[in-house]
Amino acid sequence: MTSAIPRRKTRQVRIGHVWVGSDHPVMVQSMTNTDTADAEGTARQIFELWRAGSEVVRITVNSAEAAAAVPAIWEKLDNWGCRVPLVGDFHFNGDRLLRDYPECAQVLAKYRINPGNVGKGAKRDEKFAFMVEKAIEYQKAVRIGVNWGSLDQAIAARMMDENSRLSQPLPAEAVMREALIVSALESAEQAQSWGLSADQILLSCKVSHVQDLIAVYRDLAGRCDYPLHLGLTEAGMGSKGIVASSAALGVLLQEGIGDTIRISLTPEPGGDRTKEVVVAQELLQTMGLRSFVPLVTACPGCGRTTSTVFQELAQDIQNFLRVQMPIWRTEYPGVEDMKVAVMGCVVNGPGESKLADIGISLPGTGEVPVCPVYIDGEKDVTLKGGRVAEEFQAIVENYVRTRYGEGGSKRREPVQKVIPIVGV
């Protein structure tokens, strides 16, 4: 499933074996929240994020112990068959860590550098230049990532002074938004002056408010052709973070802006880190930009559906599909486009089930206790009794094998693109 939304034309940047830019699908990435010095724990979380569908994973590299652990993390992932590109998140001491730990510098596929946290004055230029030199030496991509909360104060002060001298000064918020953009663009220009190719650069200007993010990226998109990473920083926890991120990124993606996204959710205590990957995928898929996992259509419930059977079945099927996808993705190309319907009564149940590839219409309150199953728009079988859930799941499995397996009518041949990974 692909959308006709025209993308903003950008350069194409390689991150390990993953390509980013307007010639490629919008890429999903995520970030670990483990102590990177814990090689085992970090590798396991990276593996889970990758299994969930993260195409690039960012890790914090903030100490000697973390930098020293990166090669060990990569080796563990390689042994597990996980070749996901890793991004090193560098701040105040990134130059020293890249200098002292060359294996770390080689293993990482991309460096994320925040110009506002590199240093001040001449020191800032010296440290930034060294990090850029390492990216050139090892042929790594660089994301120049500017953040509202750590904006280069020299640029902010300069622009505030310039604004104050205008006959009609702009609001402070507008100046700060412009300072974010200028910081990113000037830093990219500076990196290119030191020899970094424009085809190695991605930009981001992340803020924590929806309207600010939309305004910044609209402006930034019109002033450069670098690929842009979208994300609402400090989006928040639970539904608030999901809604805020979806509102901001949805507007920009609809306008063709954005080449890689991350949903920066604050995990609930003991929560699953992979939720940010699931939300990013669901955002892109519901917008018609990409397909990752079969979509389940389910009714919201009403006075006709006092039973929870359809809710439980919809949840079980949705979980089942996600669990199967790491295997199905390679064995059954095209299955990610499959549509499944689990409906709760006779009002919309048969109609929605016929529109799906495979659907079941459960009985509502007071209706005849039978469950017609529709396959490719035609009624196939009627289920009844206490094993409806197991029987319907078996029907779904059989449908996937016959329609997306070898010789299946819905099978799509996978596109294989092998790209050498430099420096690993």
From TrEMBL:
Protein task: Converts 2C-methyl-D-erythritol 2,4-cyclodiphosphate (ME-2,4cPP) into 1-hydroxy-2-methyl-2-(E)-butenyl 4-diphosphate.
Keywords from the named record: 4Fe-4S, Iron, Iron-sulfur, Isoprene biosynthesis, Metal-binding, Oxidoreductase
Pathway the protein takes part in: Isoprenoid biosynthesis; isopentenyl diphosphate biosynthesis via DXP pathway; isopentenyl diphosphate from 1-deoxy-D-xylulose 5-phosphate: step 5/6
HAMAP family: IspG
Name of this protein: 4-hydroxy-3-methylbut-2-en-1-yl diphosphate synthase (flavodoxin)
Record domain IspG C-terminal: where: 296-397
NCBIfam families reported in the protein's UniProt record: ispG_gcpE (TIGR00612), PRK00366.1 (NF001540)
Principal EC category: oxidoreductase
Span of the signal peptide: none
Chain residues that bind [4Fe-4S] cluster: C299, C302, C345, E352
EC number: 1.17.7.3
Organism: Chitinilyticum piscinae
Residues covered by the IspG TIM-barrel domain: 10-280
Coiled-coil residue windows: none
4Fe-4S keyword on record: yes
The keyword Cell cycle belongs to this UniProt entry's keyword annotation: no
Family, as annotated: Belongs to the IspG family.
Molecular-function annotations in GO: 4 iron, 4 sulfur cluster binding; 4-hydroxy-3-methylbut-2-en-1-yl diphosphate synthase activity (ferredoxin); 4-hydroxy-3-methylbut-2-enyl-diphosphate synthase activity (flavodoxin); iron ion binding
UniProt cofactor(s): [4Fe-4S] cluster
Domain of life: Bacteria
A Pfam family recorded for this sequence: GcpE_C
Catalytic activity: (2E)-4-hydroxy-3-methylbut-2-enyl diphosphate + oxidized [flavodoxin] + H2O + 2 H(+) = 2-C-methyl-D-erythritol 2,4-cyclic diphosphate + reduced [flavodoxin]
GO BP of this protein: isopentenyl diphosphate biosynthetic process, methylerythritol 4-phosphate pathway; terpenoid biosynthetic process
Free-text cofactor note: Binds 1 [4Fe-4S] cluster.
InterPro entries, per the entry: Dihydropteroate_synth-like_sf, IspG_bac, IspG_bac-typ, IspG_C, IspG_TIM, NO2/SO3_Rdtase_4Fe4S_sf
